[in-house]
């Protein structure tokens, strides 16, 4: 009987040992994920000071090593160190609970050595070598074996591991959410340098009556309604970004004097925008700046989006902070989605009743080719010429719209190809004939409760221009420079317009360095205001 009982206990022990190793493995994986998340966040925090010290002649340099890839590589010493460190942390907790304080102290000491080595590798951009890692790996392995040899109570160990795995998962999720919120806040913020520029320009507008007189003189220029010229419209509250769009367009045009730019901004930035474009020459192009607050016809009785702007629910959703980040993505609460400037693109024929064709440009684009060729394209009776984005499956209608609602599913194809705003050629004659603005009003009213789509201008655009969009060659409009680090250089070079859609705008510190120079080249860095306002 004893022999039979012993034979029975042995497989049970093996099963317990198996499960404790499974739990320890899960603990290692969770710890590794948290380490990578925290490393990415810390790397974002330290990147600017490191570069700053290098610029000042210091000795800190950053290599080309991608430490995230290094820590995830199965063959790297960094991966071995991180896994052993995570396992050791688990045994520190267990050792303390079993009053093995000396073992816990030894493990903690080796964990600190391991952390120092990994931190140095992340800072210097150099991989951990065998010589650096060997002694730590050996000593940690010995201590882990010693901890395993103490035969802690299996049930207690399993429960301890479960609780700590759950705690690690919660910390990892919290770190991811926090990183998302911080990224969104950085994207929404106005840099100090741009705020400084606005103040200087607004001061000029108020102190120099000659600028206001010049503005009144240009307001009635016949060029603003001449359909023999090439008309572009930009709706923005960002002076420098708008300047880059205009400057890049005229710099790459064969005949810049035949270009007319129609800019609409808000009341806060109107004086600064006027001051900038009246004080600087853009190769003879005509530039008009208007204040959206003077569009008295655009009111709550006419426009559903204005009515929604005034509702208490909308204001609480967009301006109420990030308290419910687990329910709503932070990027979906960006106030720009409710901005009237953002929705002004649906009123272009009413703002410019005499015009027949216009190119719409977002303020986060850079023009690299002559865009006047767009005006000679045959749109085959369509209203909107745009680049389609359904090369990836997630850019089809079903990803933007709620097809569980019969009002959507009965009228639209879920597999229809999406397209992009940012660079569009609009036939305003065809627009007025199809009454696209009325379509837009209809869909905005239907979505008053937010059940057809979540936020933004693209979903109502897809509905309003359905069956009225002419696909353009992909090279007219290349997107993703505000979030995608791996766009092919050949595609960027061949593009007529590059678009920094995403949170990493080129005027922010979080911009992608690889693409930022393409935007910077159209800024006159010698301008005294830009020099005065440059970050120290």
From TrEMBL:
GO terms for biological process: cell wall organization. The keyword Electron transport does not apply. One of its GO terms (molecular function) is polygalacturonate 4-alpha-galacturonosyltransferase activity. Its EC number is 2.4.1.-. Pathway: Glycan metabolism; pectin biosynthesis. One of its GO terms (cellular component) is Golgi membrane. This is Hexosyltransferase. It comes from Acacia crassicarpa.
């Amino acid at each position: 009987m004893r022999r039979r009982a012993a034979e029975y206990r042995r497989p049970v022990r093996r099963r317990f040992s198996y499960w404790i190793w499974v739990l320890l493995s899960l603990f290692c994986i969770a710890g590794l994920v948290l380490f990578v998340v925290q490393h990415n966040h810390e790397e974002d925090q330290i990147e600017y000071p490191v570069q700053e010290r290098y610029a000042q002649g210091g000795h800190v340099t950053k290599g080309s090593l991608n430490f995230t890839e290094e820590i995830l590589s199965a063959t790297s010493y960094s991966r071995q160190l991180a896994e052993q460190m995570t396992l050791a942390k688990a045994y520190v907790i267990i050792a303390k609970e079993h009053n093995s304080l000396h073992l816990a102290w030894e493990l903690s000491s080796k964990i600190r050595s391991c952390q120092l080595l990994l931190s140095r590798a992340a800072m210097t951009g150099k991989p951990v070598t065998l010589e650096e890692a060997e002694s730590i790996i050996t000593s940690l392995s010995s201590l882990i074996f010693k901890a395993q040899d103490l035969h802690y109570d299996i049930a207690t160990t399993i429960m301890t591991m479960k609780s700590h795995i759950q705690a690690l998962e919660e910390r990892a999720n919290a770190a991811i959410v926090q990183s998302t919120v911080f990224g969104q806040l950085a994207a929404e913020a106005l840099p100090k340098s741009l705020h400084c520029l606005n103040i200087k320009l607004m001061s000029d507008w108020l102190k120099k009556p000659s600028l206001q007189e010049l503005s009144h003189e240009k307001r009635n220029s016949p060029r603003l309604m001449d359909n023999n010229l090439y008309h572009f419209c930009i709706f923005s509250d960002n002076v420098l970004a708008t300047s880059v769009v205009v400057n890049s367009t005229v710099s790459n045009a064969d005949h810049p004097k035949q270009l007319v730019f129609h800019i609409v901004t808000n009341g806060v930035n109107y004086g600064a925008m006027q001051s900038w474009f009246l004080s600087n020459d853009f190769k003879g192009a005509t530039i008009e700046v208007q204040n959206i607050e003077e569009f008295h016809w655009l009111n709550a009785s006419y426009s559903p989006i204005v009515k929604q702007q005034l509702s208490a629910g909308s204001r609480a959703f967009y301006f109420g902070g990030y308290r419910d980040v687990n329910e709503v993505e932070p990027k979906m609460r960006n106030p720009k989605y409710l901005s009237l400037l953002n929705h002004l693109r649906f009123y272009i024929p009413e703002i410019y009743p005499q015009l027949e064709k216009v190119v719409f440009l977002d303020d986060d684009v850079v023009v690299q080719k002559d865009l006047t060729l767009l005006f000679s394209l045959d749109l085959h009776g369509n209203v909107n010429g745009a680049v389609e984005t359904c090369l990836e499956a997630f850019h089809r209608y079903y990803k933007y719209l709620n097809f569980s609602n019969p009002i959507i599913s009965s009228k639209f194809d879920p597999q229809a190809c999406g397209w992009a705003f940012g660079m569009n050629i609009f036939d305003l004659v065809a627009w007025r004939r199809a009454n696209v603005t009325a379509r837009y009003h209809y869909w905005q009213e239907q979505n008053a409760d937010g059940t057809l789509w979540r936020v933004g201008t693209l979903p109502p655009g897809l509905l309003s221009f359905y069956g009225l969009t002419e696909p353009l060659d992909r090279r007219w409009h290349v997107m993703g420079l505000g979030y995608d680090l791996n766009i092919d250089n050949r595609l960027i070079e061949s593009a007529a317009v590059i678009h920094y859609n995403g949170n990493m705008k080129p005027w922010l510190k979080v911009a992608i360095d690889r693409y930022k120079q393409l935007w910077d080249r159209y800024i006159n860095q010698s301008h005294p205001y830009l020099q005065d306002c440059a970050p120290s």
